């Protein structure tokens, strides 16, 4: 399910990557994280910057959504091996990976959408592009969305050997 993004949307989504590339990822706070994952065929390290849907300051767990669904290379790599490191603009830390079930993903997206406040219409238009259907923010749409776009949780692993 490959999506073609308009040039302006592609540039907007690339902005956080540029900040991380220039060592400025910290300015994004906990809103975005940089994920380092290992290629399932090559074994090479790859990085991607993802928007955080939910962050728990007590556990450090961050939840992200795969905007390109199951086709996202980072998601495919994590499904093959759960080797992940995350960074919020500081040194990357090993992280455990957990794929959210439908109910937890639904709850996370409900809370995420609420936090958007008056910008909710912009979020809904963006989710429409990624979901491949007109996303109106109803419970039915949200269930359909999390069925198409998986949510993944990363929790910093305790220090120690990999």
Describe this structure in words.
The longest helix is centred in the first third of the chain and has 15 residues, at 7-21. This protein has five helices and six strands. A six-stranded antiparallel β-barrel has the order 1-2-3-6-5-4. It has a domain at 7-108 and 149-156: Electron Transport, Fmn-binding Protein, Chain A (Pnp Oxidase, Chain A), CATH 2.30.110.10. The chain has helices spanning 7-21, 73-80, 102-115, 120-131, 139-148; strands at 32-38, 45-55, 62-65, 84-87, 93-99, 151-156. A hairpin with a 6-residue loop joins strand 2 and strand 3. Helix 3 crosses helix 5. It is an alpha+beta fold and 162 residues long. The radius of gyration is 15 Å and the shape is globular. It comes from Promicromonospora kroppenstedtii. This is Nitroreductase family deazaflavin-dependent oxidoreductase. Pfam families: F420H2_quin_red (PF04075).
